[in-house]
Sucrose-6-phosphate hydrolase (Pontibacillus halophilus JSM 076056 = DSM 19796), 482 residues
Amino acid sequence: MSERDEQLRQEAYEQVEKHKTMVEADPYRLKYHIMPPVGLLNDPNGFIQFNGTYHMFYQWMPFKTGHGAKFWGHYTSEDLVTWTEQPIALTPSEWYEKDGCYSGSAIEHDGKLYLFYTGNVKDEDGNRESYQCMAISEDGIHFEKKGPVLELPEEYTAHFRDPKVWKEAGRFYMVIGTQNHDEQGRAVLFVSDDLHAWEHVGVVTGSHTDQLDEFGFMWECPDIFHLNGQDVLAVSPQGLEAKGMHYNNVYQSGYFVGSLNYETGHLQHGEFQELDRGFEFYAPQTTVDDQGRRILVGWMGVPDQYEEEQPTIKHKWVHTLTMPRELSLENGKVIQKPIKELETKRGAQMKYEDADIKNEVKQFGGINGLSVELQIDIKKNLSKSFDIEIRNNMRLIYNRKEGLLTLERKSFVNGRTESRHCYVEDLKQLRLFLDTSSLEVFVNGGEEVFTSRMFPDAENTTILFAANGSVTADISRWHLHV
Ligand code: FRU
């Protein structure tokens, strides 16, 4: 550990100590999501199961609630639900990363844990350099930095980052998010036989390539994985213009399904589909665990979108990760299901069977809460519209005729109503995960997901059901005791 590293660690821990009381006093602290102990969190990084334990690293700025020279914070878990804070994994201590140990991934090799991340460097005039770096650990907790393993190829600007590494047929592959000199965002593939020496393979896909027209000026956080016999590229392109109910956040996260040619790097793919319909979701990363599950976690935030207005800032922290979701592919669509381990944390169930909601606003005793799971199975729907109001702050509205599901929120910036939508042909089930200041809605077994922060009156736990027409549903609530 260098002196600078030691010093940065100490300064970060001092921040944690200094603001601990203030942070913990925030009623918006979550109960079953990963948050920074102080400061700002953004992307999930290095998500892996190593020697049986799940590791989650994250982009962390300990010194303020804004972006800057990022650290890698670190949590571990045995069950993907309860997370234990670990010592800081990486600090931006060396010349090749002095302005941030930016996003990256983890892979196990010969019993060791390897991290790959982007060293971000800026000079006085704001010119950027970018190095893909490696760090190795025997125990999964202490990392030895090996420095840059891949320098910036000529074709790209220094917006070249977020390496995701995996193994396929005995070789290692790395996909990187890039921008070329014509401001076209692309995902690019590299190959290695030893994790140290990397060779450029080719462009996976991107803006102004054979399969896409204009598709963003920069692609961040790419991830390539197999899912039910196909290849999926998940990526966060920046610069897509809003189109009707699509691309309504400042930046998007979505995926392409297809087939990757490992010789050329080319992904033959279908259309870009958004991963999430809510207000806050970005830069997801996946891993595969020893049960063969493909699990995804995202950042419950979006760069440059209401970041400075987040109400938790006055308590010296900001942002959270999403809960882990298990992925599968059905008819070319990624299905996301809440990780099943969360069910083991369910407290006593409150259940209403065949509950009728008929031209009224209705409250069901016990169907409320701050950190709860709600399951609504719709058995009969003869309504024009059916809606669920959450803590006088968010509202889910299903318009049956149009097959349109809407999530409304009272903006925490100006109190106005803002909304996000998607089509759901036949609404059968909603699973809502509320956690103090977040909401994750899984529609029809994970066909669609809405992920959002919410900042209602901290005491308000009310949930109201309303129908214009009549709806019959089974309604359950579990407190989540994590
Ligand atoms: C995405 C991102 C990454 C980068 C990191 C920096 O949110 O901009 O591209 O590596 O955050 O914190």
About this structure: The chain has two domains: 3-324, 340-480. The first strand starts at residue 39 and ends at 50.
